[in-house]
Amino acid sequence: MPDVSYLDAVRKSYDTVATAYFERVKSPAELDPLSRGMLDVFAETVRTAGLGPVADLGCGPGKVTAHLAERDVPAFGMDLSPAMIKLARDAHPDLRFGVGSMTALPFADDTLGGVLAYYSTHHTPPELLPVVFGEFHRTLIPGGHVMLAGHVGVGQHLRPTQAYGGLPVSYESYLLPPDGLAELLKQAGLVLTARLVEEPDEGAQRTFATFLARKPERP
């Protein structure tokens, strides 16, 4: 079994900042056109494929899950933080949310039509990303789709002590190069279909990237 003790710090940190996160983090409608457009491309792709439910992993308070549902995607959310899941359920009582970890998804093999990991894998130590991406592959129906999005870098290891208005956090973050993330997706058996790297605009400090991939059909 891999060492997933880091999850305790992630869970505690997001339980602490949940309300501030909900208030401060933008909804998809407020995102820049490229980011919003990639979400909508993913939504149309999984809706058109019609292969099954779509899991928004690391869903936080459910804003992106709701965005998918508004586009007729059969989406549900999962997050490590019980406080985040409570906010998501309160804000979107018509949608399904549950607590869980991407390192051991509580879904059977070949059951998901899509997986969305939107700014939710950067707390995973790089050596455990193959486990996470392997879980994506395991739970996807053949032909199912993945969207992975988040900040990228050149191998930075960040250890913030405060976030979201000065609240205490103890999680760590890892910013990997886009080529490295693409290779890890491929090693997990996923076929990369698109990649978008957005350079930081004025006032921003980090580059972020979006990857679209799919699980191959069986021969």
UniProtKB/TrEMBL annotation:
Sequence ranges assigned to domain Methyltransferase in this UniProt record: 54-144
- Where on the tree of life does the source sit, at the highest rank? Bacteria
Q: Name one GO biological process term.
A: methylation
Task: Please verify whether the record's keywords include tRNA processing.
Answer: no
Q: Which CDD domains match?
A: AdoMet_MTases
Pfam families listed in its UniProt record: Methyltransf_25
The answer to whether UniProt assigns keyword RNA-binding to this entry is no
The UniProt record lists the EC number as 2.1.-.-
Q: What keywords were assigned to this record?
A: Methyltransferase, Transferase
- Residues of the signal peptide: none
Q: List, alphabetically, the InterPro entries matched.
A: Methyltransf_25 (IPR041698), Methyltransf_Superfamily (IPR050508), SAM-dependent_MTases_sf (IPR029063)
**Annotated GO MF terms:** methyltransferase activity
Protein name per UniProt: Class I SAM-dependent methyltransferase
Which species is the source of this protein? Streptomyces pulveraceus
